[in-house]
Amino acid sequence: MYRFMKRKSPPPPDINFNKLPSDPAKRKSILSYHLNQRDEVRREYLIRGPCQPRGHKFKQIVIGKVLRRFNPKWFDLYGDWLEYSVEKEKAFCLYCYLFRDQAGNQGGSDSFLSTGFCSWNKADRLDQHVGLDVNSFHNNAKRKCEDLMRQGLSFRGHDESEESTNKGNFLELLKYTAGQNEVVKKVVLKNAPKNNQMTSPPIQKDIVHCFSEEVTRSIIEEMDNDVFGLLVDESADASNKEQMTVVFRFVDKYGVVKERFIGVIHVKETSSLSLKSAIDSLFAKYGLSLKKLRGQGYDGASNMKGEFNGLRSLILKEIAKKHVEVGEFFDMISVLLNVVGASCTRKDKIREIHRQKVEEKISNGEIKTGTRLNQELSLQRPGNTRWGSHYKTLLRLEELFSSIVIVLEYIQDEGTDTTKRQQAYGILKYFHTFDFVFYLELMLLVMGLTDSLSKALQRKDQDILNVISLVKTTKCQLQKVRDDGWDAFMAEVSSFSEKNNTAMLKMEEEFVDSRRPRKKSGITNLHHYKVDCFYTVLDMQLQEFNDRFDEVNSELLICMSSLSPIDSFCQFDKSMLVRLTEFYPDEFSFVERRSLDHQLEIYLDNVKNDERFTDLKCFGDLARVMVETRKHLSHPLVYRLLKLSLILPVATATVERCFSAMMC
């Protein structure tokens, strides 16, 4: 199997799926993407669905001396594939775009693919495009899309009977292969000799296990008994069982940094002792040595105290746990999402109300119109393993607040479920308090300041230099807001309250604790909200940064930055690199440290005078080019330092992505 997994070409560039254009006219051809990324792009567009700007004012054109335009009702008739480009004011087909590499010019395929369809007087062309033949290009493309989306389903099907429309990936792919190959068809499924079909659940499990073992062992071979980093995280699966994900980070023989998923391990508890026991068992199973382990990434600074739980602890877990009012705020947001987000009708009602408000503002000249402006919005449910999703949820809540209030009032007055009506009443009551507005704006402020760092830590191609810079900048901004940001923050709170008619407090009056309203607090509202809330939350966040990026860790990262190839190695510092070897006493003996001190100047002169080392952007590029030019053999000590820097796990974003797939 190893020969099939060898690296034969540089890995494809990463794609930011959030920035894939929605407008059909702005999309790149599917063939322009790397071969290994095309299905990912296709799946992303299928998850999004066709681009259908229902609130758009469709452009009229003269056809046969009559003004014609796109009919929005066509979205309902051909809702699974019909798209409209605001850029070109033309219609397109999503299915045919995704599999245009095999497109022919039948049934108007070409107009719905590249040029766009705008013959609004010929509505029958839409049916002609689909075609009466089940094997028309459009219908074939649709089947391919359905097969592609099934690949995200489980290996085994919930219903594997003959009548089932989806028997799971294993049987569906086996059936597909048999349909494509007559030789295979003669010996599988019903045609298997002596009914030896080899498709029972135990056999399917055995096949999956064999594949898993082969892939894992090929990864171990790829590591080649070299140093590696360990990334660990935990989360509950769909059955609420605690699972631990393990990922190895290493540099392969081509100088390419790789993060390889090893497996999901069930753990009975999330204590550090249970964690260590599970890791020891995994290492023993595959004959790995702890002596080769050079970097460890556990999610959350609290794991050594007994837990390792959630990337969200950067803000949500730790602050919400230690600050009661913040915890109450997120509890109410959770209830809101259950009340409003659990029903498609309610979500559609929010969209419709928001659309009407946008149209009214456009007609009044309050907001501008243009490409990618005033898009359809809904209240997004945050993902347990996605940092930025909580921030997006609060941003949407702020933008859709008035529409959400109208829907909650409808549920409270007209709802049939008594529990939901009571919850809607409680949310509305909380929404009109000063506490809600205060903590909404405070969480938006803190999450907004840390959002850039969060995104940098989630990147697959970790840039240590960028992380160091962002950590410093984020800490400075948090400190600046703490020292001088109170007045600007309260201006935001007042603006939201005035706009949405929510309660405001007089800061000089005595604070009344809602939990003990009869007891005098002895402090003013200003002291409570500024000192006990504003300062406390920001201090907690700053402390989290100091715990996670202490002086030792920061010095280690700064020393590593001296290896950077950016701008012709302008950050090169020999003393820093010699200091870096002291962090790895088992890797560099006294003699090797002395030798490295002499070799560094030679190394720098060598690479700076080699054109192949110009325009390198990161550590990964440097390692790859050193191997390609065989300079890793000429400067083995420098290359060893570079490998140790590359396997350092700055964040556990890879294992978060594993859980995102596991929990869907």
TrEMBL record:
Residues 66-160 form the TTF-type domain. Residues 1-23 are annotated as: Disordered. It comes from the Eukaryota. This is Zinc finger MYM-type-like protein.
